[in-house]
Amino acid sequence: MDFSIIELDDEHCALQKEVRAFVDEHITDEVRANEHDTGDNFDEGVHLAMGQRGWIFPEWPADRGGAGLDPLGARIVELELMKGGLPWTLWETTRWVILAVEKYASDAIRDDVLAGAAAGSVRCCLGYTEPDGGSDIAGAKTRAVRDGDEWIINGAKMFTTGAHMCKYTFLITRTDSSLPKHKGLTMFLVPLDAPGIEIKGLRAFSGERTNAVFYDDVRISDDYRIGDVNAGWAVLHGPLDVEHGVGADVTGLKDISAGINIARQMHWTLDAVTAWANTPGPDGTLPADDPVVRYRIGAVAVQLEAALHTPGPAGKVKCSEALNDGAAELLDLLGPVGLLSYGAAGAIADGQVDFAHRYAQGAATYGGTNEVFRSLIAEHALGLPRADFPGSRKFLTGSGS
After folding, report:
1. 52, exposed or middle or buried, with CB in 10 Å at 0-12, 13-18, 19+?
2. For domain 260-381, is the CATH number 1.10.510.10?
3. CATH code assigned to 124-244
4. Are the beta carbons of 97 and 189 closer than 8 angstroms?
5. Per residue in 7-62, pLDDT tens?
6. Strand 124-127 relative to strand 168-174: parallel, antiparallel, unpaired?
7. Where are the domains of the chain?
8. Which helix H or strand E contains 209, and what residues bound it?
9. What are the start-end ranges of the H helices in 84-172?
């Protein structure tokens, strides 16, 4: 592993300055306040401005709506936007879905979807989880039945974050219940303005918004099918592997850990608590003068660094545990002032510590539960057989279940 610092040439230094100027101009106090009010983790104005610069897909050539950047340039754009507090959810999910659209979508929709995604007008969310399915994506019960050149979809999805701000959802459906569990699935790019779709907002403990989405006799053209019928699991694997941090990084520039988005909350919280520790109290002394305070902050920082340097799916597990434990430790260190939330008088860093502690309670489930990631580690990294837990549901060939 190469930990050496990359020296930027003049062109990349200019790009870095350009992105930082973009952050100062577009990621404003109003954008941050709106995020606290809505919990959307998305701002359309910022996203469209990114599209104008080709930064939604910065590595794409200009004639496809990108910025034509090399891997280092694309990485600079990503790092500077994220450091600047970009509301990122739909930037990420759209880029995952587009991997499948590029490879499998029909000629009837592919070009329009790709062009719209690059411009920022088309956003995509993930229609995976079901109310009684948890992280068992392959156990999907949402049905798609063919009717000539159309499909009729019935069912429900949970935790479809961003659905109320997206044009499409990347939907996994069951199209043949007589086939084994992973074989009878088909993927669709479903327009979310289709008749029969109802989106209901849900709030996580942290205040972030997600959605339940209901499909009642929703009719869509076969043009919106992504990949072959009953081959949905193979179609899904490209975006899913990227989300789970599975696969080699050929550039050497990507984040090592699959839990980077979780870890950012700990970064910001450590910054907030470090600033508190270096601010004089009523008696003029610094909290950081106390060696116990320094030790406790340092211990959290060490665990964060360990999480950031834990590769792939194992990094997601480590990052969620580092955030959960670290947020609780820092909240205990601060005492009552740490519980002050956004907008409260005296809140540290606009309530970042309180938010991180609440966000941490769901970190073990975001993007797939830690149990799912532990299974990935066991199977892909350690070569162990697939786990067969007592009470696991079975999909038997020919059973109709």
Report:
1. exposed
2. no
3. 2.40.110.10
4. yes
5. 999 999 999 999 999 999 999 999 999 998 999 999 999 999 999 999 999 999 99
6. parallel
7. 10-87, 124-244, 260-381
8. strand 209-221
9. 89-104, 110-119
